[in-house]
Write a structure and sequence with these properties.
Number of helices: 12
Oligomer: single chain
Strand content: 5-15%
CATH class: Alpha Beta
CATH architecture: 3-Layer(aba) Sandwich
Order of helices and strands: EHEHHEEHHEHEHEHHEHHH
Structural class: alpha/beta
Radius of gyration: 22 Å
Distance between the termini: 7 Å
CATH topology: Rossmann fold
CATH superfamily: P-loop containing nucleotide triphosphate hydrolases
């Protein structure tokens, strides 16, 4: 069994999207997968088609089992089957109220790891989705991990997030005595296509008749100032993205990019990972390539 934690202290970097879609392709390959939703927003829960309000007992109950005066709930007691074949330990907004209690518990960073001991032999992969913060749920996720995936956006502040993560992981080593080694970085909503995409046919470019006649009689269209401005903006953005990716590659052993695909949002609305909704989409192909790498981890 391999435990993989998806982490970043910022929101909007694609943690949940990456967790669910890698889990989906692993499940589609015949692997037994459990997703553990440790985010009070419960996006991984709803993203697998489960209503947090109807899930019953959830990760709130598992964490609160270690607090005085609360009954014991084992993680195997809350696991649900989903339509995509992925098992789910659901979350709920109530999880927000857990953290103050955790600070009263010795070895609180081990709660999740200890809870997972009861199901390790049932799964090939356990994938932990963490909230956009640096609180106890993230620390628990990192402490339980065999492998860590960080997710980044492709915006101007992506590298700032990398520096902050490095500091956070160093602090964890100092405070908890656990080395945090990031195995992979995923850059989401990449504007220039993914590093690994579905093969596409390359038909010869054909001009329509009107365009051909226009060039013969009037010559090629002279670009307008607006066209030139747009082209320059595109050139500058391309150079920024290339430089950003080069810096990210210096900091992580393996880096993947995932392009923007509208199917990501649509699949989440339907409670399915891309593997089960739009595997041939640009993002689906990227996550398939990533899952192929993940399935070599042990």
């Amino acid at each position: 069994m391999t435990t993989i934690t998806f982490s970043h202290h910022k929101g909007g970097t694609g943690k949940t999207t990456s967790c669910l879609n890698i889990a989906g392709f692993c499940a589609l390959s015949g692997k037994k997968v459990l997703v553990v939703d440790c985010d009070p927003q419960a996006n991984a829960t709803s993203g697998l088609g489960v209503s947090p309000e109807k899930a019953g007992t959830n990760m709130y109950d598992v964490f609160m089992s270690r607090a005085d005066g609360f009954s014991e709930t084992k993680i195997q007691d809350i696991i649900l089957k989903t339509d995509s074949g992925i098992d789910l330990a659901p979350s709920h907004l109530d999880l927000v109220g857990v953290e103050p209690y955790l600070y009263q518990i010795d070895s609180r960073e081990r709660i999740l790891r200890d809870a997972l001991d009861g199901v390790r032999d049932r799964y090939d992969y356990i994938m932990i989705d963490t909230p956009p913060s640096m609180g106890q749920f993230v620390i628990n996720g990192l402490f339980a991990a065999d492998h860590i995936v960080v997710t980044l956006d492709s915006g101007s502040f992506a590298l700032d997030g990398v520096s902050a993560l490095t500091t956070i992981f160093s602090d964890m080593k100092e405070d908890l005595g656990k080395d945090i080694h990031v195995d992979m970085a995923i850059v989401s909503r990449w504007a220039e296509g993914a590093l690994h995409e579905c093969p596409k046919p390359h038909p010869e470019e054909k001009k329509d008749l009107v365009s051909t006649l226009r060039e013969i009689f009037f010559g090629k269209t002279v670009p307008s100032p607006e066209d030139l401005k747009y082209a320059e903006e595109q050139r500058v953005e391309h150079e920024r993205l290339v430089a950003t990716l080069e810096e990210i590659r210096k900091k992580f052993p393996e880096v993947f990019t995932v392009p923007y695909s509208p199917e990501v949002y649509e699949s989440q609305k339907r409670g399915k990972p891309l593997s089960h909704y739009a595997p041939e989409s640009a993002a689906g192909c990227a996550y398939k390539a990533i899952s192929d790498v993940v399935m070599k981890w042990n």
